[in-house]
Specification:
CATH architecture of one domain: Sandwich
Mean pLDDT: 80
CATH topology of one domain: Jelly Rolls
Distance between the termini: 66 Å
Oligomer: single chain
Radius of gyration: 30 Å
Number of helices: 10
Length: 715
């Protein structure tokens, strides 16, 4: 009896998938197959043949010198898959329409989309392409670049990482690295190679197949996914238009800055034509009394700060430049500058950064310069790379890249926040949001004057002013300005190299090294370092050596906070204040060596994970560790969820005792779609300041929280 039951269950197990498969209406049919093309269905691999019916979640993979063509059953939309490409097809039925949502994880595809039936959307690992009634070519390469060529109609190209988008019109070419701002140019001769064009030109007519009616199985529609932003962006969806195009984004909601909660209204218009683009960030913060926060509008610099970006081209072009906010900025292999942000304190502190660079006509030379704030030009950096052996007959040596990087902070004390720009740091300013006053003594001048003339009735006005501004007693009560603190600069420079070792479609491996010197301090080294791309994994592995008096990634994501810190405490009847720069922390750094590793991967198309870990050990086997982590949830888990991310980092700890430390940062964002152009957004950030210097984050004001919640729109 048990054997019969087991046998019946086995038959049911085998037959059920087949019954279900044939009970579901197919969504597409193959029209042409050449060479070796695989079809993966339910974890089984078959050879794809002409007139094969295709269903949801079928994966088509074309090998070298192979391709396939298919059409969707509702409107005869045609798709051609090029050699060495992988396409996952999906479509959800909406009455008589098929809303098609496919994924191109590698390679190239061409599509001619019908104008009548259903939506058509293609996702790559970094972008989403949406079309309606058009003809286009889409490619995604192993370096993460996405290119769209539109031959008729329009295509909307959107970066999943930050929501930036552009409209690619007929005759235009869209190019993106998957984040930031999308380049749109006219299609030029030679942009599309001859073999690709020949395949596009092949005329393929739809195949007419008589179908027996099949019962339909309704399936709940799952919204398309995109990876949430991994950078700290200005809150608001960026929408980039195509050539000579205008777009508008924005949002309404609330935001907490310090202990104040404001209603937030934001408009983010953008104008793009050719390689040039400009975006504005016009924000009104309204308090509980209906008053606009005046410090955002009371200075000419505030109006400059309404510029979110001005850009031309992007890294790798003959010439490129960008002015505005930089959520994270890295040079070389990160031993000098890694994920530096001039937006850490946004919107309390707005900086207009500058990046300029391009290619020089010698030895494949590239040059780049950077300023964190063009109004002050305090943090400056630059990089030069070249390939000195391009003419070598040894293939491996031809690829070697040499580079040099330098970064300089003119005055670390300027890291102290000065909200009213009166040259008195907030921590030493009794009126941090009023640039007319900075200490109680000067504010109470009338009181002091009255007391003075009571004591010296025959004194003159000049006598009082001389006493008031030169009295040692009163001067001791006055706060310190940046001029009183002086200047404390720092310069870091380094040399590096990179050598690609192996490069194929499935596996890439390169070797690199870097040596860095902190001027008037010591050195740090990476050797050896390896980078690899394999299947769904991107991996770095480095052996690092730091001399005493050295800190890696000196200009990191928290640099604006660590650049200078003020500590005020009571000692007897006196109030003591000291300012410590990040350079002062070098004295505590001991010689160490150890490993750094990072891994980025996509787990089951559900969780996008990035983890980095550094473990350095020195004298007496004392460890100095750092961790960085980001988790992005695939939006299919929750319907209409567009973004879900949380990140955490903590550096320079021996044991992971506390979640909150001065070197920790927490960020999170959630986005829920309530319409095609509208989204509910909630964002949160915590950073920490050890005001009393006790090594723990507990006191009032030591946790700095920035929160916002509202509705964002784009059109």
């Amino acid at each position: 009896m048990c054997k019969k039951i087991s046998f019946i269950l086995l038959i049911i197990f085998i037959i059920s998938p087949c019954t279900l498969l044939f009970g579901i209406e197919h969504i597409a049919i193959t029209m042409k197959v050449k060479g070796d093309v695989d079809l993966t269905r339910n974890n089984n691999i078959y050879s794809l043949n002409i007139q094969d019916r295709l269903f949801n979640d079928d994966l088509i993979e074309s090998k070298e010198n192979s391709f396939a063509a298919l059409f969707f059953a509702d409107d005869n939309s045609i798709v051609k898959l090029f050699p060495n490409s992988i396409l996952l097809i999906n479509a959800q039925k909406d009455n008589k329409k098929l809303n098609k949502k496919c994924k191109l994880s590698m390679g190239e595809m061409w599509a001619k989309v019908g104008k009548i039936h259903g939506d058509f959307e293609v996702e790559t690992p970094t972008t989403v392409v949406s079309v309606k009634g058009t003809e286009f070519l889409l490619s995604y390469d192993e370096d993460g670049f996405t290119d769209v060529f539109t031959f008729s109609g329009e295509v909307t190209l959107m970066n999943k990482a930050d929501g930036s988008a552009a409209t690619i019109g007929a005759g235009e070419h869209g190019h993106t690295i998957g984040t930031g701002f999308i380049e749109v140019t006219d299609i030029e001769p030679g942009d599309i190679n001859r073999e690709t064009q020949d395949f596009i030109d092949i005329e393929i007519k739809p195949i007419e197949i008589k179908e027996e009616p099949q019962p339909e199985i309704e399936k709940e529609e799952t919204p398309q996914t995109y990876v949430p932003p991994v950078e700290q962006e200005v809150r608001g969806t960026r929408v980039s238009a195509g050539s000579e195009g205008f777009s508008m984004g924005g949002g309404v909601g609330t935001i907490m800055i310090g202990d104040m909660t404001y209603s937030q209204i934001r408009l983010m218009p953008e104008l793009v034509f050719g390689r040039f683009g400009i975006g504005l960030n016009i924000e009104l913060l309204i308090d509980s009394e209906g008053q606009i926060r005046e410090e955002d509008w009371d200075d000419w610099e505030d109006y400059i700060n309404k510029i979110y970006y001005v850009r031309y081209g992007h890294r790798g072009d003959k010439f490129f430049g960008r002015i505005g906010g930089f959520p994270n900025y890295t040079l070389a292999h990160g031993l000098i500058m890694r994920d530096y942000s001039n937006m850490l304190r946004y919107p309390d502190d707005r900086q207009i950064g500058l990046q300029l660079g391009g290619r020089l006509p010698y030895a494949s030379m590239n040059i780049e310069g950077f300023s964190s704030n063009i109004l002050e030009n305090e943090i400056l950096a630059g990089r030069l790379t070249f390939q000195p052996l391009l003419t070598s007959s040894v293939p491996l040596l031809k690829k070697i890249i040499l580079g040099g990087t330098i970064a300089h902070d003119r005055n670390q004390y300027k890291g102290l926040l000065d909200s009213d720009d009166d040259n008195y740091p907030d921590v030493f300013d009794d009126y941090p949001f009023d640039n007319d006053w900075h200490n109680e003594v000067d504010y109470e001048i009338d009181v002091y004057q009255e007391i003075y003339f009571e004591l010296y009735p025959n004194a003159t006005e000049d006598d009082f002013l001389d006493w008031f501004y030169n009295s040692p007693t009163l001067n001791a009560l006055r706060n310190s300005s940046f001029k009183d603190l002086g200047e404390e600069d720092i310069t870091i420079a380094g040399l590096d190299y990179e050598l690609p070792i192996y490069d194929s479609e499935l596996f890439y491996l390169s070797h690199y090294g870097e040596a860095v010197q902190i001027f008037e301090h010591k050195n740090g080294f990476i050797f050896p370092g390896f980078y690899s791309k394999f299947l769904i994994f991107h991996m770095n592995l480095e052996y690092r050596f730091y001399q005493e008096d050295f800190l890696p990634a000196f200009f990191d994501h928290l640099y604006e906070e660590e650049r200078a810190k003020a500590y005020i405490y009571e000692e007897g009847d006196s109030t003591i204040s000291i300012v410590i720069t990040k350079e002062d922390l070098l004295a505590e750094a001991t010689q160490s060596q150890g490993w750094y590793a990072s891994l980025t991967t996509n787990l089951f198309n559900t969780i996008f994970l990035t983890v980095s870990y550094e473990d350095m050990y020195g004298e007496d086997n004392i460890h100095n560790r750092s961790i960085w982590g980001k988790v992005n949830l695939e939006q299919r888990i929750i319907p209409n969820l567009n973004r879900a991310e949380i990140s955490y980092s903590q550096t320079r700890f021996e044991k992971l005792k506390y979640f909150k430390t001065p070197t920790s940062l927490v960020k999170g964002i959630l986005g829920y779609s309530i319409g095609r152009t509208t989204e509910l957004i909630a964002s949160y950030q915590e950073r920490y300041v050890d005001l009393d210097g006790n090594g723990k984050i507990k006191g009032e004001g030591e946790t700095i929280t920035t929160m916002s919640f509202g509705v964002e729109f784009r059109f």
